[in-house]
Amino acid sequence: MPDSIQPNLLILDEVDSTNTYAREHFDDLPDGTLVVARRQTAGRGRRGRSWLSPPGINFTGSILLKRLEDGFHAGCLLGVAALSLLRELAPELPAYLKWPNDIYVENRKLAGLLSESARIENGRVTAVVSGIGINVNLPSDALKAIDQPATSLLAETNREFNLDFFSKKLAERLIRYYIIYLNSAGFVIREWMEANLLVGETLTLTDPLGKEHTGVFRRILEDGGMLFEENGAEFAFSCGDVKIDRKSVDWDQLKIKALRHSYHYKQPKE
Ligand SMILES: O=C(O)CCCC[C@@H]1SC[C@@H]2NC(=O)N[C@@H]21
């Protein structure tokens, strides 16, 4: 019975990477466990990048999902759950999902997500470890050391957040969305699609071979990929790095869209 899943939060003082830890202990930890580290010594980002994790300042954690229909759903679940928690804790923040799986405020990155497969059956990924790093209490001067425009909850709201409380709330929120997913995967996927607010914008996409494409993000495909229009032709990308064209995006409109989306958002039922 899906509803028997309980939030299971494991807070570690120090670990190399919560994704690595969760994958190594995958068989011993219950489905839906959220592994959180107060300090990560070798946090990993997508495309081989490292992830800055100063001790006790930001949220770093990974969830084990053992009952997926498809691997890409892990990113949807974690992305939607994290965004919904941010909307509860900081309703004034115009945060949105940026394809494939980041949380942004305007052109500043607030959170990044890394999903790694943990089980493959008949060519399909059915279990995943999905990790997220959220800049929570990182002060503005430390943000300048990051090699891309970045932000934190503290920098955006001028408020500090208790990290243990944050972890507990995220573990609860994740389980609620996981139960919803197990009953109706389509609901969670739709929420994820709707929170991806850059559809229609001009973007630069770096494909997995490192080639840059500039064009319009047309829509999200059923398999989680993006349909991209470049010079009048349409291409489907299943992954890639997206850069926002600062000059072409109407930031005020994007902010309004993010806040409107946030007002319409309803917390998932208990
Ligand atoms: O934007 C990215 O490149 C993804 C960053 C993912 C970072 C998180 S922090 C918790 C988990 N453990 C890791 O080593 N990486 C992810």
Structural overview:
This protein folds into two domains: 1-193, BirA Bifunctional Protein, domain 2 (2-Layer Sandwich); 199-247, SH3 type barrels, CATH 2.30.30. It is of the alpha+beta class and 270 residues long. Helix content is 30%, strand content 31%. It has a seven-stranded mixed beta sheet, sandwiched between helices. It is built from seven helices and twelve strands. It is globular. The structure holds biotin. Biotin (BTN) binds at residues 17-19, 40, 43-46, 49, 51, 60-62, 102, 112-114, 131-133.
Number of E-type strands? 12
Integer average pLDDT: 92
- Strand neighbour order, sheet with most strands: 1-2-3-7-6-5-4
CATH superfamily of the largest domain: Bira Bifunctional Protein, Domain 2
Radius of gyration: 18 Å
Unreliable stretches: none
Main structural class: alpha+beta
How large a portion of the residues is in β-strands, by DSSP E? 25-35%
Whole-Å distance between the termini?
16 Å
Number of domains: 2
Ligand catalogue: biotin
Could you give the order of the helices and strands? EHEEHEEEEHHHHEEEEEH
The biggest beta sheet is recorded as: 7 strands, mixed
CATH class of the largest domain: Alpha Beta
Protein name: Biotin--[acetyl-CoA-carboxylase] ligase
EC number: 6.3.4.15
Keywords: Ligase
GO molecular function, one term: biotin--[biotin carboxyl-carrier protein] ligase activity
